[in-house]
What we know:
The protein is an alpha+beta fold. The protein has 17 helices and 17 strands. The protein has helices at about 1-35, 50-60, 65-70, 75-90, 90-95, 120-130, 145-190, 205-210, 215-220, 225-235, 240, 255-260, 275-285, 330-340, 365-370, 470-475, 495-500; strands at about 35-40, 45, 245-250, 265-270, 295, 315, 345-350, 350-360, 395, 405-415, 425-430, 440-450, 505-510, 520-530, 535-545, 555-560, 575-580. The strands form 4 sheets. Strands 8, 9, 10, 12, 13 and 14 form a 6-stranded antiparallel beta sheet that branches. Strands 5-4-3-6-7 form a 5-stranded parallel beta sheet, sandwiched between helices.
Amino acid sequence: EDVDDQSASSDSDSDSYAEEDNNFDDWVSDQAQNQSCRSLFEDKAFPSAAAARVHDKDAHNFDLRTISAKLELDLHQRIRLINFIRKHAPTPEDIGNLTGAEPFLSSDEYLIPQIEDDPLLQLEMDDWSDDEDLSSTGQRPAPPNDLPGALRQMQLLERKLTQAHRDMAEYRSLVGQQFDAGRFAEILNEPGPSSTGPPPRDDDTHYFSSYCENDIHAVMIQDKVRTSTYASFILTNPILFRDAVVLDVGCGTGILSLLAAKSGAKHVYAVDASDIAEKAEQIVKANGLENVITVIRGKVEEISLPDDVEHVDIIISEWMGYALLYESMLDSVLQARDRFLKPDGGIMAPSQCRIMFGLCEGSEILKERVGFWSDVYGFDLSVMGNDVYEDGIVDVVGPESMASEPYLLKDLHLKDITTRQLDFTSQFTLVSTTPKRTKIHAFVLYFDTFFTTTGEPVAPEVPVRVTKEGDVTLAEVWPVGGKPPPQRRASMGPGLKQKEDKRVTSFSTGPRSQPTHWKQTIFLLRDAIHAEDGTIVTGSFYCKKSATNSRELDVEIHYSVRQNAETTEIGETVVQIYKVR
């Protein structure tokens, strides 16, 4: 009788637990399993969080379960890890190198979801709880075969279920403290059902209209480093361009298209979305090249090439902005690559860009941009200088201002880089080369650009060409003062193709080169670094498109200082946030 009563009670409890489990499973299913979920490392969406996780494991050899177990992450740390990946887009290799001691794993900033109602967060909380029930062999324990064992198992599951609900409540509370107030304000300001709502954000109109005027094109064409390097690559590689179909993305006045036609291109399609396309068409006709160059007005993401042309042999474009990625024109060039470039043997020009980073003494910039305001006709206007520390400053610094050797932050191979990889995180180590104790007031960023006839990456040991004022190549390639360039006898020998294949054309926008219209991008430090020869500055550089304007950049620099290689003591980590706009 006692046994029967106990069995009846157990059956009743089991039904209750089963119903509660089913309700919890239904909640997980509703919130995660049936929601579209984005991969952690690609701009791809999958039918469910589980499918996204499987894709990341197969395509990127990255498994959230494995890395969480390796780092012994608790629930909140797992959430922080997912949100960190969503925000900064590190590579799987970067995450694989984590130790578990990183500051972001304890920062409440990363408890705020980067994607609203991220299904991966919801699925993972349940899935990880289940994983912890696995034995060391990776198999679930066998079902109990007696009543006491079944009761113990039920009690264990009840505790875990209660803990899961408690964790969820705590997580929602933590997020709510920092997030809900802002969301409540948004809800109050949302238009009613009858309102048409605000117009969609437009990041393009001002950008394209800024390229309608003559001045900006005069500045670019008169940049001898820029224009002569493009001209040198096009005109000194006749085998590459002869009979080639060329796409010029963002053609502007059409100068690159004219050069490609002069180098023997079969046909050139010059594309621009701004009003300058009308003048480009007139320029083409004025030079008698309307049978070779076709100007197309429109965004390269939306246009189709005429004459049923599906692929081109070469894409040439001068897409680079301040700090290389400002203006986000590279996104359009990469879309043009994916849509139009010949899959086998197509060439991107330029083929590679390197973002370089270094220490900058920067006292002159500090004086001009900040110190100037401290005494204006006897008045203290220093409050005007406060915001300078929040923007990347586009200006020229001389070679003597460099206080370290440059460090390669990001190497962009245009043949295969994706738009997702343009938001990046990079670790850096800079070693001071100052001969005496010096105050370092800034970091400096610039880029080097490479052209190859094969489209293959340039070896790391290949140096960039640093153009000095008066270098003969400028006068040779580009007519100066109305004088024609020297004529060279065309060489058509069998070795010319091999020579072209090995030729690398390049230019630098760094402080040691003749200044370009890109100048350099300077990030002023609120607190100067006191450095001497051998002082080591290490840190992380975060760069992504601005959330408020995709043409602008958000930059975050974390750094710490070690006085020299013999010292083990490292200073506290300093964080500064900038806009490049």
